[in-house]
Amino acid sequence: MTSARCDRSLHQTLLKWYAANRRSFPWRGISDPYRIWVSEVMLQQTQVARVAAYYLRFLAKFPTVASLAEAPLDHVLAEWQGLGYYRRAQHLHAAAQSLIANYGGELPQDFPSLLALPGFGPYTAGAVASIAFAVSVPAVDGAVGRVIARLSGTTARRNTSAFTRTIARQAEALVPRHGAGEWNQALMDLAASVCRPTEPLCDKCPLTADCSAYRSGRAHTLPVLGLRLSPKTVRLAAAHLQRGTSIVLGQRPLKGLFGGLWELPTWTIDGTVRATLLAKLGKSARVGERLGIASRTLTHRRLKTEVFRVELLSALPRKLPGYETHRFFTPAKLRALPMSSASRAALAVASTSPLKAPM
What we know:
By secondary structure, the chain is α+β, with helices and mostly antiparallel strands. It has 15 helices and seven strands. The protein has helices at residues 4-21, 33-43, 48-61, 65-70, 73-80, 87-103, 111-115, 122-133, 142-152, 161-174, 180-193, 212-215, 273-281, 331-334, 341-352; strands at 232-243, 246-251, 262-263, 266-268, 285-297, 301-312, 325-329. Strands 1, 2, 3, 4, 5, 6 and 7 form a seven-stranded mixed β-sheet that branches. α2 (33-43) runs antiparallel to α8 (122-133), α8 (122-133) packs across α11 and α9 packs across α11 (180-193). The protein is elongated. 35% of the residues are buried.
């Protein structure tokens, strides 16, 4: 991997394999930078199989940068439902508005300008620059980092700055002057189908002759895993406030977990559930029976939400602590709101509870 001759041979070998084994996706083989960008954002932290249907639906709703920039954020978040990690959709929307304001609605073609846009980290900027504009830059996500770590025999522990620096330097050295987009996509496909996290299919890999991990018998143990912390359990109290057939939902602030999404008014439990709800809703609230518990595990947090029926003895407060706004919604309106899976789970608990009043 250190000589130009070796790199040319490695490039030729992998690209020949890629020509015969490349995966087929709606975002492959296109030249529209906007569509390439949308696909790369969706593919972050979401399985490829889930992305395809959402990708086509999203582009049908927002076919251009301008249509995305002009849409209310609520509409963008609603179309993002099911993909998770909603901050990506917020950044996509903010970047589209920046493109309209500063670049005439077109994505800039150089890596530094892309990197300066909202939501563009080194991977996204590298992927868009190389695939859409043929810029010779690497695109290193976790999967590509795994391939490079095995090729080079890197022993630094994942999720450390030493690993990140080492892989970035090696990826930069490997990227070809021409055809960087094909090269980056070939690495992605090799990582997905052959150089897998566990049980890599080394017998099907075209790069075993260049792979330090394979030659040393360490393909199953490299890269060295980083330290993983167990998710922290967070206990939450949710208020189910109903008037006729309508239910109160609050909209979270744009910054923070589930930013901009709607949910049953929910707060971290401080003391007892009843004390928490009364502190947030006021003494005119009467906390009734518990309707159920909804549990969801995120990357670093395990949410345990206890849903309680709450009755207001006077008017609903004008402001709910921790929420941008709140209002009553009918069941039909609920279905169209952007909500996290954790929030829908809490609603589902309330709707299926035998203690819940019929709607």
